[in-house]
Amino acid sequence: MPVSHPDLGSQLINLCSMLLLLTTFAIVAQRRLSACVDLFALQSLFLAVTAALVAWFTGSPHIYIAALLTIAIKVIAIPMILKKVIERVNVKREVEFVINIPPSLLICGALVILAFSVTEPIAKLGFLLTRDSLAIALAIVLIGFFTMISRKKAITQIVGFLMMENGLFLGATASAYGMPLIVELGVFFDVLVAALIIGVYTHRLQDTFDSVDTTKLTGLKE
Amino acid sequence: MNAALLILIAAPLAAGLLSLVVRTRPVMERLQLAHAVVLWAAMAAVVGSVAAGDEVAVGSLLHTDPLSAFMDFMLAFVAGTALFYAVGYMGEELSRGHLNFPRYRRFFVYFDLFLFAMMLAVNLDNIALMWIAVEGSTISAALSVGFDRTKAALEAGWKYIILNFVGIALALFGTVLVYYTSEHVLGVGMEALSWTALHRAAGSASGGLNPVVLKMAFVFVMIGYGTKAGVAPMHTWLPDAHAEAPTPISAMLSGLMLNLGLYAVLRLKSIVDPAVGVVFTGSIMLGLGLLSMAIAAIFMLIQRDYKRLLAYSSIEHMGIVLIGFGVGGPIGVFGGFFHMLNHALTKSAAFYAAGMVLLRHGHKIIQGVTGLWRQAPAVGGGLFLAGVALAGLPPFGLFISEILIATAAYRYQHWIAYLFLALLALAFATLIAPLSRMTLGEAPSESLAVTYSSDRLMTSALGINLAAMVVIGLLLPVVSLDWLLPISALVEAKAVFP
Description:
The complex is a heterodimer.
Chain A: H1 6-29, H2 33-58, H3 62-89, H4 101-123, H5 133-150, H6 154-176, H7 181-209
Helix pairs in contact in A: 1-2, 1-5, 2-3, 2-6, 3-7, 4-5, 5-6, 6-7
Chain B: H1 2-19, H2 25-51, E1 56-58, E2 62-64, H3 66-95, H4 101-123, H5 127-145, H6 151-186, H7 195-203, H8 211-228, H9 237-244, H10 247-276, H11 278-300, H12 306-327, H13 329-361, H14 372-375, H15 377-391, H16 397-412, H17 414-439, H18 452-475, H19 480-491
Antiparallel strand pairs in B: 1-2
Helix pairs in contact in B: 1-2, 1-4, 2-3, 3-4, 3-10, 3-13, 3-18, 4-5, 4-10, 5-6, 5-10, 6-8, 6-9, 7-10, 8-10, 8-11, 9-10, 9-12, 10-11, 10-12, 10-13, 11-12, 11-17, 12-13, 12-16, 12-17, 13-15, 13-16, 13-18, 13-19, 15-17, 15-18, 16-17
């Protein structure tokens, strides 16, 4: 695959991947729900830029399509849906935590170190351009997972899920120069439908329980 | 018979889309019953030609190898009876006024799309497209789990969504990792994601697939698809979802979706094993299998809800299957496959019977149900027969596969076999005791009446599954050996005991 300006390219891509990771931390540290959604949109924008950079420096045009889809779905459509849900269920108040912000950030820091050390033995297999991105992708996946389990509100759990998806997408784009287009399209479709369904469920939680605090879901246990 | 493969996959999609425009109940019933018959016919044709050694494929993406054909048989057979059952069950709910027609219609749309996604997943010759189809089945099942608009159903649905979506995301990371190493060997593009090509690359002497990456990929996939298969400790969604979903969906989840998760893990195992040896994947599966059995057996002890009881029994059986594949060897792997098939038939039958109990009693409390045998012999007898088979009594297929797995475990490590048998004994007692309490004794003085036509459909679904279970169990040595062995060979790359 033709790679022009590997040095400049890899530096720009690394910069963008780091910005992705940074927004992940910002989401973890954020108290306001709607700001979480905005930050998610920003993160997705960085993701699209990363994908476009990979497309430019490797000359693989199909990644541009993935970048455009990222903008359409993750920067515009999904944040819009989430905003609607927030408005509807009227939870502009703060994010509620199972684990508070400072220890959360420490844990996320540890997750980043874990991600780098786990992927260290296999990073050298990757293409020159995007060698560090796999570790960052794994870090974002782990932090997204952590967000899902450490937040009480249904909507923050959705944001956690979407962050995981962003991490996965970064992993696929950067480490493998993108999966084949049909695969990318299918994944996008699934993520969009998944987000819609979670949104529907959140509505119904609000209607039935009069709350989207998932710690109130305690009817079913042994 | 490539047309048959297309029909097998397209039939659920077509039925689901047609259901959207159906306006009356009789039309819907005829459509779904016809759907079941078409499924069976297409499945028979596909399985027949795979068994005869023909190449069954459509384009480069759909390819049915013996393992896919095995899954096709399981999916189409059980889904067919589940359709018969659903027509009866949901019809009864409709005539009782528990749901209106639009929701009745929506049920079948979800059901058919769920089946379509699973059918597609097992026939795709591509690791990433399979992921997409599996995710599709997760999403469509999410709609079905929360179908009843009760608080409990909603909570079960939310739990299901959160756990399974995380699981499926982790499985995608594993899939990306496989591509990460295979694109160096097979080139960038679809070829690097094809199971056939991956299998070939993994089998070649120098390999080329990086063992460290494959190990990581297996761990992610095992956790991810293991969540879908209800493997402990990722099983916590399962009892809630099985208990709260409409009963036909419970049967589909337990009989088919759990096996789909296992199928995906086995596919990956078959390409990881040649590169890293069977011990790595085997010990992970063995550990998770023992844990699942232990947790399920203990929790079955304290269940008061009979649908939850059956759900925990599913976790136990998934554990047994994992132990079979974990200890490996021709006997263990064969036992694992045979157990998957028999569990699918038997557990769906048990859920059919449980749903018929639910329709008669209107609640799911074990203590509140007695004398089923006298009240409705078909239901009580069916539930008891399925329960006896699930508990592992001879002469049923589950007994045979448990003996095979115990034998393989004994050759692997003595203590594993002892632990396995002890857990089986515990699960036996905790399942048989409540089920016999429900079946025997005096019939209650009053119960809800079930319409004759609905009851007949549900009874026939129950009967067909139980008959298939008995036949397959008794005829095992004659019929299934030459049919299951090529599949075992596919998974067990090197049939050796360490």
